[in-house]
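Expect sequence, tokenised fold; for instance:
***
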Amino acid sequence: MIDKLYIIKQILETDEDTDIKILSILDLAKENPDKVNIHLIEERVEKRKKIMMEVNLITEKEKFLAETEDISSTGAFIRTKKKIGKGEHISIKLTDPSGEDFTFVAKVMRVKNNGIGVMVKNISLTDQDNLTNFLGRL
């Protein structure tokens, strides 16, 4: 039998994370063909780095603290028990361990029980450069 991962790599020229997601969907489809959710594959521009940082979140309704699980210059997964709707725009302020702040507006792209996946929508050039430099040091 031909290796599924090899075929995927040849056709899509994907990275390892995407390969694993595709394989899991193929296996799931084989077991439960009526229950496959194609939205399990996420397109990411930048690879996320695992880091826990305190986050100040401001929604239309409230302001509260949360914590990142992972982050890139284009998005993050933020752990929170607060309910924030998919598609909602929120203001995020991160503070790195050296005390440097990064502020941006993000759109909630994914909602899970333990948090939200966000995509950066609006960030100043200075904050973008500082965040990129910080991530490069990780």
Q: What stands out?
A: Helices lie at 4-12, 16-31, 125-137. The chain has a mean pLDDT of 78. Residues 4-40 form one domain. The beta strands are 49-50, 54-58, 63-71, 75-79, 89-95, 101-112, 115-123.
